[in-house]
């Protein structure tokens, strides 16, 4: 291996190695998609979104990205979110209020168990 | 290449290795191969995770499930159940006080949550053989910052702001030590890392070297830059083969990457480290003796001054710090001295690693902010005394330290408080003693150790400590007098005042300190010929209660000297002349019929 000469060299190794470590540290890689169509927003998806971001922060979970999307087409169960963890089938949850956000993150993202009573759909849309 | 789905971190600290970590690891790897999981499940050996009483330990990520007390059978089951089928194997999970199962004790038990890890931050987190993993945890970034953004004076400033004091025992302000060595104009200069950890029961230095060796490489290199040295030595005792092996690997990897050698990080700074292996003499932890030993001479101490900062290795200015002190340095450089000083209290800043041992539930290694009370350390983090017994005292600082009696456990642990109580923090060994421990016997144990380790150079230590031991032996065998106690006191005082080095100056400390707090126990030994804890074998007898004995013969069968006689279903009897007071019969009697009595 070439000798390390600069901060850039160090950063490169860090980032590469960190990828491996992250997998180990804080849950699986993946993303949470929040349906932010008009219907979702009207049902409170903005609060849901900020609850997700805050709670992930609180739990120091850094490798789950939070993405906004348009309407999933499940307007009657809004707010809806999709939890998409690498290597697992995506799960769509409905009626996700900020208080349910904690349950989903605790149980599903951290614990690895699907919160069955909130599931609207399993698998790809 | 398939992505790794699970990582098994298996603790490869010394205690877990002794408990059978290798067979667990081998079985894990074999089973993973059999089920073709070896490419998606990674097995990583880490440094000591700290909870040594639970070993061998493994944590499975991403879930973070904590398995304890593993063996080969358990390893196979974990692969078959947990990794293959996704079912947690309950029987090897951590169980709390009331038997409840905890999947992730590291998130809820005070043993884990009350700790603040600075010196031991990477232990149990990184693979100690992988420089990449160390870099991923911001390793060598502090070296980069130190070499490229800071002057040596800046570094000394940060150390002074951090108020860090030496973690090896004496507690000398580290910033000042670095400054004194830097100011000396003589050349060349040397950096030494003292890894001659000798206190019975203390093993934080070994754990750090085994679990995070690159951290020490980084810190020593920063030290070299700061004081103007090109060469460093680490003095590791031969009893630490794994530490030596992993540190050697760290040196090699660091050289390959350009963190050691010439022109480090393209700054023109040259530095390298050499390992010196000690033969395990306790006195070589004393810095002047250590320096003699590194030079290849016999490890005996010298008169100070001159201090090593003036005339150390080969009479050149030498900076000598303990492993744990170095382990904090990169974090102080990275986050600043003020950040470090936020932990701890006035006069004792930062954290300290303690090795918990003796009559305590959670034995192992913990790092906590200084200023925490002994009570919290022992009851909350350590889990208290097993079997509901009462704590009698806590011994700190090993053979150079003293004890703190139960009623003073509320004292916050600081350098000054401990001094006031007649003990020291020392290297951080904490030995908990309960009502079954005899304080005279404890003092005798430590003195026995120092007598063995006295180098013989100066008379007070060489002649005085064996004399003290002799008196203690008389006391514990029932032949002591009250006059002996006075002689012990005077002798102790003389040895402490007149010995050449720290070993002799502190050797009587365990005796002086136990006499201070447990005078009545000493008195009971000499005037009543009674050992209150019934520990000293000449001062109690073992008897069978004829009302309780049913004649089951269990005691007679285990007695190694055939001192117990009696026919089956009849009351048994112990011959006090033959009995060696080994206590085997006490352990097997199911009728509570055998007890120790004072004569």
Task: Provide an overview of this structure.
The complex is a heterodimer of chains A (125) and B (599). With 125 residues, chain A is of the alpha+beta class. Chain A has one domain: Glutaredoxin (3-Layer(aba) Sandwich). Helices cover 42% and strands 19% of the residues of chain A. Chain A is elongated and about 60 Å long. With 599 residues, chain B is of the alpha/beta class. Chain B has five domains: 6-108, Glutaredoxin (3-Layer(aba) Sandwich); 131-341, NADH-ubiquinone oxidoreductase 51kDa subunit (Rossmann fold, 3-Layer(aba) Sandwich); 345-434, Ubiquitin-like (UB roll) (Roll); 439-527, de novo design (two linked rop proteins) (Up-down Bundle); 540-597, Alpha-Beta Plaits (2-Layer Sandwich), CATH 3.30.70. In chain B, 40% of the residues lie in helices and 17% in strands. In chain B, the strands form seven sheets. Chain B has a five-stranded mixed β-sheet with strand order 9-10-8-7-11, with helices on both faces. Chain B has a five-stranded mixed β-sheet with strand order 15-14-18-16-17. In chain B, helix 10 (204-211) packs across helix 12 and helix 19 runs antiparallel to helix 20 (482-498). The longest helix of chain B is centred in the C-terminal third of the chain and has 18 residues, at 459-476. The radius of gyration of chain B is 26 Å and the shape is globular. The N and C termini of chain B lie far apart (75 Å). The A-B interface holds A 1, 3-7, 10, 13-14, 16-18, 20-21, 23-28, 86-87, 111-112 and B 3-5, 7, 9, 61-63, 86, 126, 130, 132-133, 135-138, 140-141, 144, 148, 256-259, 265-266.
E-strand count of chain B:
22
Number of helices of chain B: 25
Q: Give the strand content of chain A.
A: 15-25%
Give the number of domains of chain A.
Answer: 1
How widely separated are the two ends of chain A?
A: 46 Å
What structural class is derived from the secondary structure elements of chain A?
A: alpha+beta
- Looking at this structure, what is the CATH superfamily of chain A? Glutaredoxin
CATH topology of the largest domain in chain B: Rossmann fold
Strands side by side in the biggest sheet of chain A: 2-1-3-4-5
- Note the overall shape of chain A: elongated
Strand content of chain B: 15-25%
Largest interface: A-B, 24 and 27 residues
